[in-house]
Design a protein that fits this description.
Its EC number is 2.5.1.58, 2.5.1.59. The protein is mainly alpha-helical. It has a domain at 1-92. It is built from 9 helices and no strands. It has helices at 40-55, 60-72, 77-90, 94-107, 113-123, 128-141, 146-159, 165-175, 180-189. Helix 2 runs antiparallel to helix 3 (77-90), helix 4 (94-107) packs antiparallel against helix 5 and helix 5 (113-123) packs parallel to helix 7 (146-159). The longest helix is centred in the first third of the chain and has 16 residues, at 40-55. It is elongated.
Length: 193
């Protein structure tokens, strides 16, 4: 996915929307031992991000900038954190945010989970079916995916739905009796006393 999907790929410095912002370059100190050679698009995006972060600007353009920064580096937890602050300030549509997260997950399966949980918690029980269906798809590809099981347990604990879990585990065990993940889930919810 292109990091600049919302703006046609134009550099921020050429966009009228950003003319009022003075980019804030990264400060590596006076004598960096091994300076990192960033791509120009990444450097520019992060320079603008640092500027809006420092100004605590919570606007639609700040939200778009976090999208760009996340596409360039989905492992930047500061960007994810600031995105949550902006989403709250704008009272943004969190169903749309889940769609964005799914596009991120399709190309990068890590680094967004904490943010996803934050979104799902705010959507509440309305998000449960969507999350469980997503996890079911992942487990249909890899029934022993630790991260999917972990997220499934979190969804069930946070949003409910344990009442159907034994049937789901039974189905998985019928498909593969050696699925230790399904056995673990089954035994966690079944009273053997």
């Amino acid at each position: 996915m292109d990091s600049r999907e919302d703006d046609g790929g134009e550099p921020l410095s050429r966009m009228a929307e950003w003319r009022d912002v003075t980019p804030l370059p990264q400060d590596d100190g006076p004598n960096p031992v091994v300076p990192i050679a960033y791509k120009e698009e990444f450097r520019e995006t992060m320079d603008y991000f640092r500027a809006i972060y420092k100004a605590d600007e919570r606007s639609p353009r700040a939200l778009r900038l976090t999208r760009r920064a996340i596409h360039l580096n989905p492992g930047n937890y500061t960007v994810w954190h600031f995105r949550r602050l902006v989403l709250e300030a704008l009272n943004a549509d969190l169903d749309e945010e889940l769609d964005f997260l799914q596009r991120i997950a399709n190309s990068n399966s890590k680094n967004y989970q904490h943010h996803r949980r934050w979104v799902v918690e705010r959507l509440g029980a309305n998000a449960r079916a969507k999350e469980l269906n997503l996890i079911k798809k992942i487990l249909s590809i890899d029934a022993k995916n630790y991260h999917a099981w972990s997220h499934r347990q979190w969804v069930l604990q946070a949003l409910g739905g344990w009442e159907d879990e034994l049937d789901y585990c039974q189905q998985l065990l019928e498909e593969d009796i050696f699925n230790n993940s399904a056995w673990n889930q089954f035994s966690a919810r079944h009273d053997f006393t």
